[in-house]
Amino acid sequence: xxxxxxxxxxxxxxxxxxxxxxxxxxxxxxxxxxxxxxxxxxxxxxxxxxxxxxxxxxxxxxxxxxxxxxxxxxxxxxxxxxxxxxxxxxxxxxxxxxxxxxxxxxxxxxxxxxxxxxxxxxxxxxxxxxxxxxxxxxxxxxxxxxxxxxxxxxxxxxxxxxxxxxxxxxxxxxxxxxxxxxxxxxxxxxxxxxxxxxxxxxxxxxxxxxxxxxxxxxxxxxxxxxxxxxxxxxxxxxxxxxxxxxxxxxxxxxxxxxxxxxxxxxxxxxxxxxxxxxxxxxxxxxxxxxxxxxxxx
Length: 297
Ligand code: SF4
What we know:
By secondary structure, the protein is of the alpha/beta class.
């Protein structure tokens, strides 16, 4: 979709369905993936984006990085329990494009791909329990998440998926000038770990951080790949037994989600923005979010 010079490959837009949802009686909640920081202009703060979404018609805005924290703790526990005794390595699973390729390339080792829920699904399922009637809208950098929501998990609770590009088109159409808005909310749902998922290496770092806290003596080997070409090479090595004992992270897009098909700014700039946003969290570890999640469960 990104590289086709003729624009012959398109994703399916759900802008119309979202506008209809705004007109309906049910509340509509946005869940926004952490690569959003800086996507809507250099001078637009994260909180101004939230304010813009509220003015667009959303009733609430939550961080997908909240679900990423839960995923990180799940994968850390899975690794500690199963690698290397029950499985030779663990591959992360939050990128749906990587996940599909990994399941295909690994053959009889496909069971080594994590079965943890993705951050998007984890966040949506959590909200669905609290607010059974709310319409849940994923806003992210990713066209593959549209596929994930539609086909990969029949039990997930995301109603629509829109990219930053599509939301930006809606801001422009409604004449919402984000830089002039005075924020009324601050995002504070997620930890440094969960917000870092948007950057290549961020999932590894989050899971590693949790492992270090749960089992400080455990030494783990990690490797990551970005772009499907590099992911395939890593998977072939894993299938051949050359990555035993490893935690493997794959991201389909260059630089990770900051390079997703629905982003607006350059991945290098987005990486710096996300890093600063992650560091601004007052939760130092995904385990803090996980403890709150379990208390409310
Ligand atoms: S790396 Fe790309 S395809 Fe994978 S989840 Fe992120 S944006 Fe989507």
